[in-house]
Design brief:
heterodimer, A: mainly alpha, 73% helix, extended, B: alpha/beta, Rossmann fold, 2 domains, six-stranded parallel sheet, elongated
Chain lengths: 229, 275
Amino acid sequence: MFWKTQIPVFIVFVVGMLTLLQWFIPHYPLNQIQVHMTQWFDIIAVFAIVLGGLNLLKLQFAKITARQKDWQYALVTIVSFFVMLVFGFTRMGLSPDDGVRLGSHLQQEGSNFHWMFFNVFTPLSSTMFALLAFFVASASYRAFRIRNAEATLLLVAGIILMLGRVPIGHLLTAWAPSYLQLPAIQEWIYSVPNLAGARAIMIGIGLGMVATSLRFILGIEKSFLGGDE
Amino acid sequence: MKFWEFIGSLDRRIIFLIIGLAVFIPLLAPLKLPVITTPTTEDVYNAIDSLEAGSKVLVSFEYGPSTQPEIEPMAIALARHLFRKKCEVVGMALWPDGQFMSTLVFDRIADKEFGLTWGKEYVNLGFRPGGEAVIKGIAREFRANYTQDVRGNSVNDLPIMEGVYSVKDFDFIFSLSAGYPGTVEWVLYAADPYKIPMSSGTTAIQVNEVIPYVKGGQIYGILAGMSGAAEYETLIATPDDATKFMDAQSIAHLLIVVFIVVGNISYIVQRRKQN
């Protein structure tokens, strides 16, 4: 109990209070806390990458050994993981006397890592994103219905924004007075109702963050300890 | 009535095919629709254009291959404008794949198009993990976070880094952002607390999140998605990829609107029939 709960809560309290205080007392030694803590964060983030990698392997191996549905994809994930790991930590693809340092080789044309990034990862990533255009078109055809006043308002605003952001929107309403042209109306929607809504959401999020942070610092919220704490 | 029932239950593969053709045909046969600039893009252009020769500009690459078609055209146009103004450009990345994206832009524009010298007129410092912690870190001690560039040269040996010890030593920050960490974090942890002029280019979907900072005066304008890139290309009088892609985007958007209208007519007709 003491080691698993009280010590972590105490550490969170001390770190949270020190980080908070430096904004109110920006003088030595409190003003140095941010410098050191951001570096601690970097170091912890690096170890988190190792943990993430191990967790990925654990889950995928479990999938394969249990012959779960689509276990073959898990095999592809593990093979790809190790292939990229080897290419990342070696200078494979480059000749030994070209003078490119380990680390810089990731950006060097000819290295296997560089080849895999631009010829496998990039096209796969772009393809996944490009498919969205087709799904958006299909979804808008089937789901964007004027069922009530709110849905109609959303639909009209969506249509104005979609057309107002592209050159054809200007051409379609070029005959109208400038304030009634689609680009002008979409600019108004962005700058007035949208901005008001976005600011309200931001203020709400900000207040929520303050409340959650205080709950963590004061030890009321203990979900970060894991388990049933 | 049967016609509207048929339209209402149209196979999604037909929609995919129509959208595919609507995007593909304008790319092969451009319509050359005129690009009209908007005030937010003009604000970015004016902010960059007012920089003096020799100004140090920090450009952060926060996008990857999935959003490359949308953000890279604005990165290219921005780099052209900055190098024409003889600004000294320092690149960095908060996303791991942003390092590769920045290399593509610097290779094409700084190296091949302008023939500039690495380390003197531009440099690419690459990726550091940590997201906003990196921004907070370089806001205090730049060289504690970045000790070398992507080619392995020590930051202390680079002429362009002379006098740069924190982010405050830059005259301008530009964030090319497709999400988190990105423009919002730059405003919160660098531009606003240290009063450094900043501007941004984002994906169209992210504009909603960033626009409060633009309208609040914390960012000078915003390049909003592909259309923002096309407008910037128009302003620097060098039409490129974004201007070409706008034809395809125009037709695709128009077609989606047609789909919505037709889908709704079908919905209303069928609902009346049911009633």
